[in-house]
Design goal:
Its EC number is 3.5.1.-. The protein is built from 8 helices and 7 strands; from the N terminus they run βαβαβαβααββαααβ. It is of the alpha/beta class and about 240 residues long.
Length: about 240
């Protein structure tokens, strides 16, 4: 069994990108916690909802979604949505979460822009991915980095054994079959009502994306009948010991 920490920019990023994997990991006996860099206050579609109210709403939605998948604690870093940069403070805050949760594995967003995917290259996602990589190495493992974490909070240095980069485009080298968990992934996404309430085709979107990943993994092909299709989520796996 492993301790896994998911590090992302926004509420709902985990559920869109890796919700099936989280459900599978929990079912297999692993512990999965979240580190979310912003409250998602720049999200949503209702202009009548104030930004403070939106942040509170999205925290509640993320907690509900995490409960659907069986995830544990959520570390909220509170950085501004839409203005996430790779700063010393962000690196420190992610390092704090790593030292607190002491994960065997972290799952991060890609720190590089995918020129073939506009939606897959949100600048907040890229910043969260790069800051997380900086926290994995060298910050969280270095007892002399962010000394206040040890001096003021008693958080000892921690080395993360492996890092999974979620949705790396064509660079995935590990695919998880999440067919049995697709319904729970969609249910978790529906908990983010402020973001997905308008998506009447949410399940179909997720199934088509999961099907494309399953084809890349060789779990099925273009000729597979709809009733027999598999769904997958892909990761680039890095040895960060």
């Amino acid at each position: 069994m492993a301790r896994i920490l998911m590090i992302v920019a926004h509420p709902d990023d985990i559920d869109f990108g890796s919700g099936g994997s989280v459900a599978r990991w929990v079912a297999e006996g692993n512990t999965v916690d979240y580190c979310i860099c912003t409250d998602g206050d720049a999200g949503g579609f209702d202009e009548a909802v104030g930004r403070i109210e939106m942040a509170e709403l999205r925290r509640k939605e993320q907690r509900a979604a995490a409960d659907v998948l069986g995830a544990g604690e959520i570390d909220w870093l509170g950085h501004p949505d839409g203005r996430l940069y790779v700063t010393h403070d962000l690196r420190r805050d992610i390092s704090r979460s790593i030292r607190r949760r002491r994960p065997d594995r972290v799952v991060i967003q890609s720190p590089t822009r995918n020129l073939r995917s506009t939606y897959g290259s949100h600048p907040d996602h890229i910043a969260a991915g790069e800051a997380a990589m900086c926290a994995v190495y060298p910050d969280a493992r270095n007892p002399f980095a962010h000394p206040e974490l040890l001096a003021d909070e008693g958080l000892e240095a921690w080395t993360v054994g492996e890092t999974y980069v979620a949705n790396p485009g064509d660079g995935a080298d590990v695919y998880l079959d999440v067919t049995d968990y697709m319904d729970r992934k969609v249910e978790a996404l529906r908990a983010h009502e402020s973001q997905t309430g308008h998506m009447t085709d949410l399940a179909e979107r997720m199934q088509m994306w999961g099907y494309s990943q399953a084809k890349a993994a060789g779990l099925c092909d273009d000729g597979t009948p709809p009733a027999e299709r598999r769904f997958a989520e892909g990761f680039l796996v890095l040895d960060t010991k």
